[in-house]
Amino acid sequence: MAQLRYTRNLFLRGICITYLFAFLSFYVQIPGLYGDNGILPARTQLDLKARATLLNKMKQKPTFLWFAPYLGLNVDYMLDVLSLLGAILSFAGFVSQKFCIAPVFAGLWSLYYSLYQIGQTFMFFQWDVLLLEVGFLCMFVAPVWYAYRGNPSDYVTLWAVRWLLYRLMFSSGVVKLTSGCPVWWKLDALNIHFESQCIPTALAWYAHHLPMWLLRLFTVATNVIELAVPLLFFFPNRKVRIIAFYLQVFLQICIIATGNYNFFNFLTICLCISLLDDQFFSKRKSKNNKSRIRNYLSTLITILIYGGVMYGTYIYYDLKIMDNWTIESNITFTQREFGYILYHVVVFSMYFALASFALTLVSTIISIFYTKEMHQLNDKLTATVFALLYGISIAYIFAISVVPYSSLSKIFNSTSIDQLTRLHSKVDHLHIINSYGLFRRMTGVEGRPEVVIEGSDSIEGPWKEYEFLYKPGNVNNSLPFVAPYQPRLDWQMWFAALGTYHQNPWLMSLAYRLLSGQPEVLALMNTVENPFRDRPPKYVRANRILMLGGLGKQSHSPLIEYLTKMKILQEKPGFKVTNEPFKLILDNLRSLVSKVEPSLILWGVFTAGYAIILTGYSNSVSKKK
């Protein structure tokens, strides 16, 4: 079996980078989103003055924020501490492999889960729960303590990562068709997607204006990469898996180039590393004739497999080359036929994955006794025990993941095993096993929906629009490249445009903060083009539907009563900060960070970490010389 030490280390460091982006992205938005004067204050989720024991509080809502009083801090400052601690740990894992160990990843998962507990609507994204699930798996993938050599159990633990990647990609492909969305079934999704997505990049404009037949062909390619290729993740031929890796990474790069989906695509690329092995990164070529024969056979099998995929694409998408050298494409199967095929694919994939896992576990145990790195029998027995323990743990994870995975097929879901469902329900709140499915239905078919927030000093106008930092607004502003930073307010504004303000009650709080001229919230918006820099407006409206009155208590009483009922506005003073030195440090750091554009902070820290790695590598090379 090929080694996985380098592959494992690359995966773990990639996850550390993703954690770093996630924690820093969260940190810079804390005052405006979760501060005392933010849109959804975090203190509404916790009662630090409650007389319950710490254990009972942790049972009620498991988060490290309960430790705030013990440090002399309130919830706001404790959020800063947790975010910064997460950033420090992830940065350490990024720059040094010695910190890519299970205890560190346990800490990272616990910290992000603590933040997720109070995240409310601004953290209800699939990439947040995906990061939690990946972070949980990293506790198994990472060595308990730093070791220079590879661990035979790496094959078993990285298999779990591959299974997660499969569920993510396959589910994303399935829901597009099971939703019954006519845009996906007509292959017109990409004709709309680039224009209607939340925060498009500048390249999205060019992608949107590609020929329609080419966009339809790209939609076909997306379906194939998400539906057919993931089944090959468990194929025993490594060349088949490597091509699957390239296809998945290609899709993610295309998404990164045309849309700002924060750290999600970077995280998915990290998951794709599980399809590789150390031989992929090695330049050595075997001169053995037997190896050459196996290589030729492997290449032939790969050609046959992907030739079959291409032929299936040709048949099921009715690809035709027209006289003008364009390619016409149409789906040839019905929704009912797809549902029937899906049921059998779901059943087959579970047995296929289970067989792959069993083969991986058995091969790992056999390789332990034939490896040259372990000479003592005790070492081999110990490694075997650990491999079995990891195998049992991964088998349990696989078993409970069957519950959300089987829900892809309505037919299969009706016959799900009750025992597995009960097991899944016990850990569901931890988000270590989740269901996925992106772009279930294509929005913006009749045009891009937007919520325009305007303010005025008179009910009769003139109304002046508030500009956001990243989401499309003023047509004179260019579209940004902001990933891996996630502007959570901009994202929620996009979702708000798909519903009403009744479905997005946080809009009431946003309106109140704008009427109050709250600087923490305004910092999340375009302060340069703020039409009310000197003083806040007396009236605010959104989409010419929501109308809110002035700041006077009489005309404003319904809004104040509502926000007080939601505990967004405090009737009593909150928990007092007693640790003044710590508070001063956090305030100074916040003041320093607030002067820099968030995406620059993320890339600046990443560049610094990369420079540290290169410096360390250069020093090690010079010492060898």
Automatic annotation (TrEMBL):
It is found in: Endoplasmic reticulum membrane. Residues 432-543 form the Lipase maturation factor 1/2 C-terminal domain. It is a multi-pass membrane protein. Residues 124-282 form the Lipase maturation factor 1/2 N-terminal domain. It holds the Pfam family LMF1. Belongs to the lipase maturation factor family. This is Lipase maturation factor. It comes from the Eukaryota. Involved in the maturation of specific proteins in the endoplasmic reticulum. The chain crosses the membrane at residues 12-30, 64-92, 99-118, 124-148, 164-185, 213-235, 242-258, 264-281, 293-317, 341-369, 381-405, 600-617. InterPro entries: LMF, LMF1/2_C, LMF1/2_N. The keyword Glycoprotein applies. Keywords: Endoplasmic reticulum, Glycoprotein, Membrane, Transmembrane, Transmembrane helix. One of its GO terms (biological process) is protein maturation. GO terms for cellular component: endoplasmic reticulum membrane.
